[in-house]
Here is the input.
Amino acid sequence: MRSMTRRSYAALATGAAFALILAGCSDSGNKSPDASSTGKVDCAAYKQYGDLKGKTVSVYTSIVDPESKQQTDSYIPFETCTGAKIAYEGSREFESQLPVRLSAKTAPDIAYIPQPGFLKSLVADFPDAVKPAPQAVIDNATKYYSEAWVNYGTVDGKLYATPLGANVKSFVWYSPKEFADNGYTIPTTWDELMTLSQTIADSGRIPWCAGIESGTATGWPATDWLEDVVLRTAGPDVYDEWVNHTIPFNDPKIVEALATVGDVLKNPAYVNGGLGDVQSIATAPWNEAGNGIPAGTCSLMRAANFYQANWATDVTVAEKPQDNGVYAFYLPGKTADDKPLLGGGEFVTAFSDRPEVQAFQAYLSSPEWANEKAKVTGQGWISANSGLDASLLQSPIDIMSYKLLTDPAYTFRFDGSDQMPAAVGAGSFWTEMTDWIATDKSDEAVLTAIEKSWPAS
Amino acid sequence: MSVPSTPVDNLVDVPAEEGMSIQNKKLSRIEKRAIAARGKLSSPWASGIAIIIAVLWTIPTLGLLVTSFRPQSQIQSSGWWTLLSNPGLTLDNYDEVLFGSSTKFATYFVNSLVITLPAVVIPISLALLAAYAFAWIEFKGRNVLFVAVFALQVIPIQVTLIPLLSQYVKWGISGSFWTLWLSHSIFALPLAVFLLHNFMKEIPASLVEAARVDGAGHVKIFFRVLLPLLTPAIASFAIFQFLWVWNDLLVALTFAGGTTNVAPLTVRIAELSGTRGSSWYLLSAGAFISIVVPLIVFLSLQRYFVRGLLAGSVKG
Amino acid sequence: MDWFINADTTGHKLALMVVAIVLFVAVMGAILFAVDRPKKIPTWVVATGFLAPTVLGLGFGLVYPGLKTIWSSLFDRQGKNYVGLDNYITAFTEEQFQVVLRNTVFWVITVPIAATLIGLVYAVVVDRTRMEALAKTLVFMPMAISMVGASIIWKFVYEYKPNQPGVNQTGLLNQLLVWLGFDPQQFLLNAPANTFYLIVVMVWIQAGFAMTVLSAAIKAIPDDIVEAARLDGLQGIKMFRYITVPSIRPALIVVITTIAMGTLKVFDIVRTMTGGNFNTSVVANEFYKQSFTIRDQGLGAALAVILFVLVIPLVIYNVRQLRLTEEIR
Here is the structure.
C-alpha cells in the first residue's frame, strides 16, 4: 500500500510540475499589448459610473475560449476606471444551465442571452428574477440602436436587454479568384444567382456546398436558409407574421419559400460539391462545409459573417482574387433594390439591480464598450451600435457586415428560429429541416409537422 | 456458491511430472502460474481472439492520438492513417489546450484532483458499511431496502440538479468543493452498494461464522475477514468511480459553477470546442491530456487484482 | 467558516481536501466504535448505524428529487397547472415516440449482452498471460475517455466523404470500404442501421468495465477449484463453461445489470453523434432535450418517469437472483 501511494504521488507531482513549468513559460509570452495600452485609458467617460471599488459583477455567457478572452479584455477600462471587478464565466451548456440556476435562486448578475425567444420565456417563467433595464441603459438603447434592435430586447413593452454583439447571416461565400478566372460576376438578384448556379453546373461542376450538422443543434443552418428565403420571396412583413405565429407555420407563402430553398439544397445538380449527394448535407459539419471553396470542389456556400473563424489558417479572407482566398457577397433579393438582411446577436440581461450591475449594463450598451471590444478583438466581431467607430474593425468581412447593418437601404430581421418558442426554434424546426434533407420528407409534411409542434399557449 | 471441501494440501503440490523443485510455497505458486500461462498461450484460438479484440479496441483511440498531433487543415482533408505520406506533426493543439486559456492549466488539474479523491473515498467507505449490513446483518425489511437502494441507480442525475442546488444555496455552500463531494458521493452510492454487496455475498458464510464463534465483533469481521477478500472488487469500483468523477462535466458545471477556483479539467476541455463548436480538433488533444491520470490510476491499481487471495485465506 | 467554503490557492485546496477526508474518517470511526460491542447492542441498532449515512444521503439526493420528478410530470411545461396524465399521453402519441422506445429497448438488450460477452471472453483469454497488464489497459482505455470524447473518436471513424477524385476519405471505415472496392456509406444517416453503429460505441466503452470487474472476479476464484478441475482434465472451453462462468455468476449479474442501467440513462453518445436525428433518439435523449433545451418541465419529467418504469424488469430479475443466492446459502 505504502509503495503504491508514493509512486502515484510521484507520478502526479511530476505531471503537475510539468504543467506548472510550462504554464510559467507561457505566461511571459502572454503579456499582451492590450495590458499596456489600457494603462493609458482616459477615465473621463467612465466618471458617470461612479466609484465601484470592491464591488463584483458576475457575468454568465455562452461565449467560451477563444472569444471569451476578447470579452474579458474589453472590460479592462471599466475595471481600471471604476475599480469594479467583473467575474466572467462562459459555458457551452449556458442555455440549459441558466434556467437551473434561476430555479435554484443562484442567478448570475448579468447573462448574455443569444435568443430573444429565450429572453421572452425567461421573463415569463421567472418574472421576479429578470430585472428591467435602468434609465441609463434605456437612454443608450434609444440613442445608439435602431428601433428593431431595441424591440428584440423588449418584452411586453418593457425594455429588459440591450444588444451586445451582432452578426449578419445573408452572405454567400465564394472564391474571388475562381470568379475572376471564369468571368463570373457577383449576382445582384436572386435570378442572377440561379443563373450563375446553372452556369457553374453546366461547366460540369457542382456549384453549392452546404452542411447542417452541428451536434445537438443540427439543422440550424437549414433554418437560416429558409428564413433568408422567406424574407426574399414573401417579404419582411410576412416574415414577422410567420415568426410571431400570426400566420401558421405552414402558410402557402412559406411552402413556396421552402420549395425555393429546395431548388438549391435538394437539387442533385447543385449540391453537395465535394461532400456527396443531397443527403450528405445532413451529416456534413457546418463549420467544415466551406472547405470545398478554397479546395476547388464547390463554388458557393451560404453562411454568416462569423464563418470567417472556420477557415483554415492558410486561407485568406479578402476581396482581391488570390490563391486560397475567399470572400462573401450579399445573398441577393428578388430585385436589386430589394435588400432584406438576416442576422443575430446576444442580449445583455440583468438579474440584479445593484448599482454596480446597472453601471456595467450601461457600459455594455455604450459606444465606449463597442469601440473597446472592436479594438481588442482583431477580427470576427461587430455590433449594431451606431456609435461604433467603423475604422476600428479590422477584417474586410466585418467592415462589410457593419456597413450592411447600418445602411438604411437594408431591412434587418433577427433570426426567426431564435425568436420562436424553444419547442420550435430549438426543437422541431431544426429536426424537421434535417429530416427534409436526410429522408427527403416533402415540403408540406415538414412545415405541417412544425406547425403541429407549436406550443398551445 | 460454496467452496468444495477438498483437502487443501493436495492442491498445493505441483504434479511431479512437471519436474519442478518445490522450495517453498511462494515459489510453487509462481510456477503454477507459469504453467497456466504456458497453457493459455499454447491455444492459438485464445491468443487470436485476444489480439483481434485488442486491435479493434485500440485502433479508434490510436486514430485520435495521431489526430491530436496533426494540424487542423490536414485533419479535415485526409485520414490519420496517411500520416506517413503526409508528415507534419505538430504540438500546436496541445499548446493551445494547455496554454490557450487565461487560467493556468495546473489550476484545473489541481481542482480535478481535489474533487476526485474525496469523491472516491467517501462513497466507497459508506457503501462498504451499507453492503456489510445488507449482506451479514439480519434485520427486518433488509431485502426491500436493498432493492430500493439498487433501483435508485436509474434516477438520471439531471432530475436531481435543481432540488440539490436549491438546498446548497440555502446552506450557503454552493460553488464550493463540498457540494461536489457530497453530490458525487450520493450519486455513486446505489451502484457501489449493489456491487460491493454482491461481492460480499460471495464470501463463504463459514468464514464469517467462524470469526463470530471466535468472538469477533462486526468491526473486526469487517476489517480482518472481509476487507482483504474484497480488495479486487473495491479496486475495480474505485477505478470506475474515479473515472466518472474525473470525466464528469455536468455535476461540476451545475454545483461549482464554472468559476476557475473550483472548475475541473473537463470544464476547460469542454470550452475547447469554441463558442460555435468550431474547433473540435482541439478536443483530441484535450482528450489525451485528461486520459493520462485515469490510466496511471488504472495501472497502479492493477496489482490489487491478484489471484488467490480468497484461497489463501481459506487455507490460513 | 469561510476557510471551508472558499479555497483559492493550491495549498489551501489540498489542505481542505485532507481535512474533508479526515473529518469523514473520524465520523466513520465514531460510528464503528459505537456499534462494536458484539453482544450488548441489538442488531437493529448496528444495522441503523451502518445504513444511516447511506440512506440519509440517498433520501436527500435521489429519492426526494425522484419523487419530485414524478410529481412534476403531472404538471404543465412551467410546472404551474395540474394536467393529469396529459404529458404521458403526449409522450406516447408523439409520432417519433414509437421509434424512440424501440431504439431504447434495442439498446438495453444489445449493449449489456455484447459488452459483457466481449469483456468476459477477453478477461479469460488474457488472464495469466505475460502481456496481461498491457492487454487489459488497451481495452480499458475507452472507459477512461469520457462519453463525449468517445463519441468524437467514433464520429471520425464513421466520417463520410464521397468517392470522387480530389476528395480523400477521412473516416477509417469508409476508407476500408473504398480500398475493398465498395462505395462509401453514410453510417450515421440510414436508419435503422445507424442505431446499431451508435450501439457499437457504447459496447466499445462498456467492454472495459465488464472486463475489469469480471477479471477481478475470475482472479477471486479459489485456486483450489481451478486446480481440482484441471486435475479432472477440464481444459479450454470446458473450463470456461463449467468452472469460470458459474464461479463468477454474481459478478456477471452485477456487470449486466450495471451496464443495462447505464445504457438506459446514456444520452451523450446519441446527442454528440446524431443529435437524436435520423431516427436514432432514445428516451434519455428525449428527456434531456425536453427538460433542458425545450424546457418543457412536465414532459421532461414524464420521460424520466418512463425511464424509471423501464428499469422494473431489471429490478425483478435482480430480486430473483437475490432469492436464488439466499437459497443456495
Q: What stands out?
A: The CA atoms of residues 217 and 248 of chain C lie 6 Å apart. The two ends of chain C are 51 Å apart (CA to CA). Chain C touches chain A at residues 77-78, 95, 160-162, 164, 166-167, 186, 188-189, 271-272, 274-278, 289, 292-296 (CB under 8 Å). The mean pLDDT of chain C is 86.
